[in-house]
Design a protein that fits this description.
single chain; alpha+beta; 2 domains; 3 helices; 4 strands; about 20% strand
């Protein structure tokens, strides 16, 4: 984020320097014209700088609001979290088979662009394979060492 801000600041200063050079060097023949042009160019630079800072503040506010909404707002709270995707299998470029848990029932759905179809309603529930996994603990180096030991021991 800081790199983007610094890049934008560099672009603004580059643009301002071009505006100043063009304004000062255009049609100056006498010293009085140069001083009057310099005075008006600083006024226009101040106005341009004020406009650029205002635009920057608005853009930062938009990006901050988008980040906040993405991080905080969750869609599943509207239905109380009653739907849960158990597994997804890709069967084509844009087609998928999805196993969804709705309350106590599990439904197999076919999902494609533009439509969703119920394939089957399962009589017996399939356990979520991720449900029984214990969360990862320890440092990365310890987990890597354990994985390497397990791989080379078998």
């Amino acid at each position: 984020m800081n790199k983007i801000i610094m890049l934008n600041i560099k672009k603004i200063f580059f643009f301002l320097s071009i505006v100043v050079c063009c304004t000062v060097s255009a049609g100056e023949e006498a010293n009085t014209d140069v001083t009057s042009k310099a005075i008006t160019s600083t006024d226009s630079i101040a106005n341009l700088l004020q406009l650029s800072i205002g635009l920057g503040i608005v853009l930062v506010a938009i990006f901050a609001l988008a980040w906040f909404v993405k991080r905080v707002a969750k869609v599943d709270t509207a239905i109380g979290g009653a739907f849960k995707v158990i597994a997804v299998l890709s069967v084509g470029q844009r087609e998928r088979i999805v196993l969804v848990q709705v309350g106590e029932h599990q439904i197999v759905l076919g999902v494609a662009p533009g439509h969703v179809r119920k394939i089957h309603l399962l009589d017996e529930s399939i356990q979520d394979p991720n449900q029984n996994q214990k969360p990862l603990s320890g440092s990365f180096s310890a987990r890597l060492q354990a994985a390497l030991n397990q791989r080379f021991s078998s």
